[in-house]
């Protein structure tokens, strides 16, 4: 068997299913929209992402899974046209409110899921997908990004495939296998005949920056579901054992930053 015999798209889907990956309904993201703009460590991540982009010769951007517009709004001042695509109306509403507050009139929301028909989504010079690549079918997602990019694609993918510190997850009996991560993306792009560039970013994880234990529990519950009394007690112990670690939410996120040219 050689590398050429491996269908990395299929391998990704199999891994995702085995790890219990599931598509969240958009309402779950709606509920997070207000809080997302206030995330700790946010500006460093955005600076690190944008600092690695080459926008020369580009006037338009399609930001997929744009959320509240962390990347789209930061780039809008230097572009003519910015499209933010997301399936959460709550996220799009906050993005547009932020765009108005910044005096940006070149940002357009597109309410759409990764899996929907994109035939009417305009192609743009640059396509980004920042922290929004936890999809069930990666080969399909990459083909979509590639097809909509006239020049370049930039995305981030979590390294290690865990959105929650492994120790915290284990305390709540969620010691599931990690989700498939960036290494599939590199291999699928290779098979697509693209030449992916690879870099790495680090930032605070999803549980970072909480003010107190209750807020911490709410953040854990968003990712892992309802927490019973026994789980809450174990979390309390973990939280109190090292308050500084608890404020960081455990281990930091490490992102693979992947880009490629489409022509
Ligand atoms: C972690 S947020 C990232 C937001 C933004 N790109 C950033 O870096 O701050 C993930 C976003 O992907 C969106 N999303 C999740 N699943 C999606 C799907 N199937 N189709 C479209 N958007 C999706 C969510 O609504 C959310 O806004």
Descriptive labels:
263 residues; alpha/beta; Rossmann fold; 7-stranded mixed beta sheet; 12 helices; 7 strands; globular; binds S-adenosylmethionine
**Which small molecules are bound?**
S-adenosylmethionine
Q: Could you report the average pLDDT, rounded to the nearest whole number?
A: 93
Counted beta strands: 7
N-to-C SSE string, H for helix and E for strand: HHHHEHEHEEHEHHEHHHE
Poorly predicted runs are: none
Main CATH class:
Alpha Beta
Distance between the termini: 31 Å
How many helices?
12
Radius of gyration from the alpha-carbon trace, in angstroms? 19 Å
Oligomer kind = single chain
Write down the domain tally: 1
CATH superfamily: Vaccinia Virus protein VP39
Major sheet details: 7 strands, mixed
The coarse silhouette is globular
The helix-and-strand class reads: alpha/beta
Give a short overview:
41% of the residues lie in helices and 18% in strands.
Give an overview in words.
With 263 residues, the protein is α/β, with parallel strands linked by helices. It has one domain (3-208, 254-261): Vaccinia Virus protein VP39 (Rossmann fold, 3-Layer(aba) Sandwich). It is built from twelve helices and seven strands. It has helices at 8-18, 26-30, 33-36, 42-51, 70-75, 89-101, 138-148, 166-171, 182-191, 213-224, 229-241, 243-248; strands at 60-64, 81-86, 107-111, 124-129, 149-158, 197-203, 253-261. The protein has a seven-stranded mixed sheet, sandwiched between helices. α5 (70-75) links the parallel β1 and β2 (81-86). α1 (8-18) runs antiparallel to α9. The longest helix has 13 residues, at 89-101.
């Amino acid at each position: 068997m050689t590398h050429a015999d491996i269908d990395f798209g299929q391998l990704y889907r199999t891994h995702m299913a085995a790890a219990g990956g599931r598509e969240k309904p958009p309402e779950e993201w709606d509920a997070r929209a207000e809080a997302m703009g206030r995330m700790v460590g946010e500006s460093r991540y955005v600076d690190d992402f944008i600092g690695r982009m080459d926008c020369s010769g580009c006037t338009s951007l399609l930001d997929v899974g744009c959320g509240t517009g962390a990347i789209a709004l930061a780039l809008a001042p230097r572009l003519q046209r910015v499209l933010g695509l997301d399936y959460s109306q709550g996220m799009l509403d906050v993005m547009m409110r932020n765009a108005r507050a910044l005096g940006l009139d070149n940002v357009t929301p597109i309410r759409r899921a990764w899996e929907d028909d994109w035939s009417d989504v305009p192609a743009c010079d640059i396509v980004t997908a920042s922290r929004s690549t936890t999809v069930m079918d990666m080969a399909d997602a990459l083909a979509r990004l590639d097809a909509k990019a006239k020049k370049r694609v930039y995305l981030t993918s979590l390294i290690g495939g865990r959105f929650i510190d492994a120790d915290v997850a284990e305390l709540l009996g969620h010691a599931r296998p990690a989700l498939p991560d960036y290494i599939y993306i590199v291999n699928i792009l290779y098979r697509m005949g693209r030449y992916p560039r690879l870099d790495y970013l680090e930032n605070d994880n999803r549980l970072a920056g909480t003010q107190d234990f209750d807020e911490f529990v709410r953040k854990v519950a968003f990712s892992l579901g309802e927490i019973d009394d026994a789980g809450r007690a174990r979390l309390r112990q973990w939280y109190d054992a090292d308050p500084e670690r608890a404020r960081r939410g455990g281990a930091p996120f490490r992102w693979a930053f992947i880009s490629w040219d489409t022509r």
